């Protein structure tokens, strides 16, 4: 445990680190990649260029300091990060260099304000927090390897087939090259791919939600082609997979991971997806139907229009089930959509719409989509006074961006 003096110093200086969080994050990654350039094979370079990881790191440092005496307050964040660390292969021996670099970044940014006493206190705090991560991740590695069909590191799969789901989305059906059994997973979890793309200096790692119910003899991931927009470049990995990977080609994946899963209770379920955020929620929906789960389910999907709407017919078929009701929101319906009246709301999902179709807030809400979409859902549900424990979401951008945790 940490001594009282260390706790006092860390908690009193956490707001200062928060104020300079972006600069600390930026300096940290600059130093880290200078010291260990091989880590560029692990970190998402697109998020680096856009400053997302830098901002998230700074926030995480502040949050850890603020809650240093009660890490349970950060339990969901720690579990989510640990799942991702296990998925990409972060090891215990990498933590010391990260801690050393983080403290150097704090010193470089704060200058004389970062006294030896402050740096020493934050060093102790980092050791305390990293021990929590290392312990949890060790357990995750062991469980993953020992489960039926499980494996350590990355395993080779071949693309059994590709299916176009919309103008932007393609599903990849994956089977293990070795022909052996594959690990099961919980609906809502994801696979992690490691790709070596021609012309790229470093490997690229991405998380893609499994879009099918568990316990098949294949995995299915459904990937949106990320095209250049709003200053963001084309998605390197998504475009590579869409345009260059064909049936029979092989890819490397780590075992399923993730903490975005259905709770085990009797409350009704509301699944809300925006764009490609439909994938983990579709896995949940399929799982509920296949397992004949008696809980009432409302499934809401928001996208631009029918051209960008994957799995529409499939969900409509499930809509005939007694306990499933689905709704569609189009923000930019085509003229054909308007004539066909094939959606329930034009525009964005808002609280008024949610309250018009959900009879009670005493439900479990699960949602996934873009950062603005997630923030809008959190805002709406907070306005409805939905308990935080009844809000569950997945985000593949660096965790801290939502700021909710």
UniProtKB/TrEMBL annotation:
Site positions per UniProt: Involved in heme-bound ligand stabilization and O-O bond activation: 29
Q: Which residues form the active site?
A: 95, 137
* Renumbered residue ranges of the record's region Reductase: 149-405
User: In which domain of life is the source organism classified?
Assistant: Bacteria
| Keywords noted in UniProt | Detoxification, FAD, Flavoprotein, Heme, Iron, Metal-binding, NAD, NADP, Oxidoreductase, Oxygen transport, Transport
Enumerate the residues binding NADP(+): 275-280
PROSITE patterns in the record:
FAD_FR, GLOBIN
EC number in record: 1.14.12.17
Task: Please list the residue ranges annotated as the Globin domain.
Answer: 1-138
Question: Where does the record place the site Influences the redox potential of the prosthetic heme and FAD groups?
Answer: 84, 394
Its required cofactor(s), as named, are: heme b; FAD
Output one GO BP term.
nitric oxide catabolic process
Please tell me where FAD binds in this chain. 190
Annotated GO molecular function terms are: FAD binding; heme binding; metal ion binding; nitric oxide dioxygenase NAD(P)H activity; oxygen binding; oxygen carrier activity
Q: Which residues bind heme b?
A: 85
* Residue ranges occupied by any FAD-binding FR-type domain in the UniProt entry: 152-263
Per its record, the protein catalyses: 2 nitric oxide + NADH + 2 O2 = 2 nitrate + NAD(+) + H(+); 2 nitric oxide + NADPH + 2 O2 = 2 nitrate + NADP(+) + H(+)
Q: Which residues form the signal peptide?
A: none
Q: How is the cofactor bound?
A: Binds 1 heme b (iron(II)-protoporphyrin IX) group per subunit.
Q: Which family does it belong to?
A: Belongs to the globin family. Two-domain flavohemoproteins subfamily.
Name the job this protein performs: Is involved in NO detoxification in an aerobic process, termed nitric oxide dioxygenase (NOD) reaction that utilizes O(2) and NAD(P)H to convert NO to nitrate, which protects the bacterium from various noxious nitrogen compounds. Therefore, plays a central role in the inducible response to nitrosative stress.
Copy the domain comment: Consists of two distinct domains; an N-terminal heme-containing oxygen-binding domain and a C-terminal reductase domain with binding sites for FAD and NAD(P)H.
Q: What is this protein called?
A: Flavohemoprotein
């Amino acid at each position: 445990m940490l001594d009282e003096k260390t706790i006092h110093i860390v908690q009193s200086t956490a707001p200062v680190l928060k104020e300079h969080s972006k600069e600390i994050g930026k300096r940290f990654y600059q130093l880290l990649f200078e010291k260990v350039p091989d880590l560029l094979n692990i970190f998402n370079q697109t998020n680096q260029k856009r400053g997302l990881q830098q901002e998230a790191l700074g926030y995480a440092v502040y949050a850890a300091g603020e809650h240093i005496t009660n890490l349970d307050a950060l339990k969901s964040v720690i579990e989510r990060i640990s799942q991702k660390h296990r998925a990409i292969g972060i090891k215990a021996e990498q933590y010391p260099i990260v801690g050393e670099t983080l403290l150097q970044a704090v010193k470089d940014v704060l200058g004389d304000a970062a006294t030896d006493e402050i740096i020493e206190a934050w060093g102790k705090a980092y050791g305390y927090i990293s021990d929590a991560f290392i312990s949890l991740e060790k357990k995750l590695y062991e469980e993953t390897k020992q489960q039926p069909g499980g494996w350590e590191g990355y395993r080779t799969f071949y693309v059994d087939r590709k299916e176009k789901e919309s103008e932007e989305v393609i599903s990849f059906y994956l089977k293990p090259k070795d022909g052996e059994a594959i690990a099961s997973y919980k609906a809502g979890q994801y696979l992690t791919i490691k790709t070596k793309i021609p012309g790229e200096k470093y490997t690229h790692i991405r998380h893609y939600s499994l879009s099918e119910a568990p316990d098949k003899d294949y995995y299915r991931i459904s990937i949106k082609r990320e095209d250049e927009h709003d200053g963001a470049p084309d998605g390197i990995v998504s475009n590579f997979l869409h345009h260059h990977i064909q049936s029979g080609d092989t890819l490397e994946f780590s075992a399923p991971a993730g903490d975005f899963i259905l709770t085990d209770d009797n409350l009704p379920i509301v699944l809300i997806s925006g764009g490609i955020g439909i994938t983990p929620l579709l896995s949940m929906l399929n799982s509920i139907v296949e397992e004949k789960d008696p809980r009432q389910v409302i499934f809401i999907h928001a996208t631009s229009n029918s051209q960008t709407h994957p799995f529409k017919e499939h969900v409509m078929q499930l809509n005939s089930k007694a306990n499933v009701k689905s709704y569609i929101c189009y923000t930019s319906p085509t003229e054909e959509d308007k004539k066909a009246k094939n959606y329930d709301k034009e525009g964005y999902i808002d609280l008024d719409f949610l309250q018009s179709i959900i009879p009670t807030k005493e439900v479990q809400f699960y949602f996934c989509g873009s950062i603005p979409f997630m923030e809008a859902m959190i805002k709406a549900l907070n306005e409805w006074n939905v308990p935080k424990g009844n809000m569950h979401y997945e985000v593949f951008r660096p965790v801290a961006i939502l700021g909710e945790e």
